[in-house]
Design brief:
Layout: H1 14-17, H2 27-31, H3 57-60, H4 62-67, H5 76-93, E1 102-106, H6 111-133, E2 143-150, H7 162-175, E3 182-187, H8 196-208, H9 213-235, E4 239-241, H10 246-259, H11 265-268, E5 272-273, E6 280-281, H12 289-298, H13 313-328, H14 332-340, H15 360-369, H16 399-404, H17 406-413, H18 417-422, H19 428-436, H20 440-464, H21 468-476
Parallel strand pairs: 1-2, 1-4, 2-3, 4-6
Antiparallel strand pairs: 5-6
Helix pairs in contact: 5-12, 6-12, 10-13, 10-14, 20-21
Length: about 475
């Protein structure tokens, strides 16, 4: 059993998920006879708390010493094994990847997505070796694709070195073979149309229509997810792997709280998010960004800084605040995540059961073991048509007000409070124009949300007026 804590000292991942053998306790072991359980010896030399043989990275790498936390308690080999153990535990206990899957890894060039790609490759490589060695070859090897979303049309000033960066990404992906992985470079405007010229105009006008800095940044993040969903849908991928880590989730928890997204917060911080057509998984959820940066440095995993814009608005303030907290106490980010993790997840925060394989059984066992009970008694009636967050049914909404308000009122009703205040224009005439610029996938979601809202209000009216027959007819429709 794992504690899933970024500050754990129990080496709980060692036995079950270690990927390389530990060095033999030969001559070095004699040197560690006087070592304490916390890794120090009588000569003041720090030893790894896991193998009790090698020196910690704090003693051999100055950068690791400055980082503190678990990075300074492990030797390089044990540190890597422990980090991969967190990844593998998340994957296996939540049925993120099964032999029949075809997963798409979102790759931005940063350390988080680079480690996610590396670990997925190692899992695939091991599965391929097992497949080649088996006689019956009953378990297929899951497929892997890599996608980079090109946002140069939105940040033209920062796109001068984009071609070189894409070439470097192609080299990284091609080096992770066999098995071979397909690499996609897709511009954001493709969510509109394969005709880049048409999509370019609509996308630039849509982004320009959002005046709030925080809202514009959030909108770009939502468009990025739509782009990944489109790639996955068109190419037959069954899961999307994101490199989102503990540090990023900790910032998102505070950002969502400040923006008034408390109701939907639980949906965004789980290992699995199946509200999308292609489920999204977060196998690095229990890893700190500092750990991922250190691993890239130790293993010489090349990272690429391309179109990396500083965060702005509320997001920028919260990100800076969390960084300060982490410097003061290295366990703060893990504490924020564990606290938010007590929220009840939604019914879509687990892999759907399709009946074709037993991959979901591990997830079911984990839910029973850790008492994870998704809230199925109160499923969301609809989702925000911009960010796809589950909407909480308002107690004071009336069908007359919704219908009489026209399209403008309908758009506001179909959006969460954060998107209402930070993305949608306040002027009704501007709102109509904004709606015309949305990609089709967002417009379709708005129509679904509007229909769900109508049905929900009618059901409420039927219950209040004691119309059981009318209520049953609505449900039947």
């Amino acid at each position: 059993m794992s504690c899933n804590s970024g500050t754990c000292q129990s080496s709980c991942y060692k036995d079950e998920y270690s990927v390389t053998d530990q060095p033999p306790a030969t001559a070095n072991y004699e040197r560690s006879n006087d070592a304490s359980l916390r890794g120090g010896d009588s000569n003041g030399q720090n030893l790894c708390i896991k193998c009790k043989v090698n020196e910690t990275m704090a003693a051999t790498h100055s950068a690791a010493a400055a980082a503190g936390g678990d990075i300074g308690r492990f030797c390089a080999d044990c540190f890597r094994n422990n980090l991969f153990g967190k990844f593998r535990f998340a994957v296996t206990s939540n049925a993120m990847i099964t032999p029949s899957d075809k997963v798409l890894v979102a790759f931005s060039g940063g350390s988080s997505s680079r480690v996610a790609l590396q670990f997925v490759h190692e899992m695939q490589q091991k599965a391929q070796k097992n497949f080649d060695a088996s006689r019956d070859r009953s378990l297929p090897v899951f497929g892997v694709g890599v996608a980079y979303i090109n946002e140069s049309i939105i940040f033209p000033a920062a796109s001068n070195d984009l071609n070189q960066a894409v070439n470097d990404m192609e080299l990284i992906v091609s080096s992770l073979a066999p098995p071979e992985k397909q690499f996609f470079v897709v511009p954001t405007q493709n969510i509109y149309s394969p005709d880049c010229a048409v999509g370019k105009n609509q996308l630039t006008e849509l982004v320009a229509a959002v005046s709030d800095a925080t809202g514009k940044e959030d909108l770009l993040e939502h468009l990025r997810m739509l782009s990944l969903q489109k790639i996955a849908s068109e190419n037959g991928y069954t899961k999307i792997v994101l490199g989102t880590c503990t540090s990023r989730i900790a910032s998102h928890v505070l950002e969502a709280t400040v923006k008034g997204q408390g109701f939907s917060l639980a949906a965004d911080i789980q290992y699995v998010d199946a509200r999308w057509e292609t489920p999204v998984v977060l196998p690095l959820r229990d890893c700190l960004s500092e750990e991922l940066n250190t691993l890239c440095s130790l293993d010489s995993l090349k990272t690429i800084e391309v179109l990396q814009q500083p965060r702005s608005g509320i997001n920028g303030l919260i990100s800076s605040f969390v960084q300060l907290l982490q410097k003061d106490n290295p366990s703060r980010e893990s504490t924020i995540l564990r606290t938010a993790g007590k929220l009840t997840p939604f019914h879509f925060n687990r892999i759907p059961e399709d009946g074709h394989d037993n991959g979901h059984s591990a997830s079911q066992r984990r839910q029973r073991k850790y008492n994870l009970k998704p809230n199925e008694s109160l499923p969301p009636k609809s989702f925000c048509f911009i960010c796809n967050s589950p909407l909480k049914k308002s107690s004071n909404t009336s069908l007359d007000g919704f219908e009489n308000g026209g399209t403008s009122a309908g758009l506001y009703t179909a959006a969460c409070s954060s998107c209402q205040y930070q993305i949608l224009p306040k002027d009704p005439s501007s709102l109509e124009y904004f709606y015309s610029l949305l990609p089709k996938s967002m417009a379709d979601l708005e129509n679904d949300s509007r229909n769900n809202h109508n049905i929900s209000v009618l059901l409420d009216l039927a219950q209040k007026m004691q119309w059981p027959a009318a209520g049953s007819r609505i449900k039947g429709d």
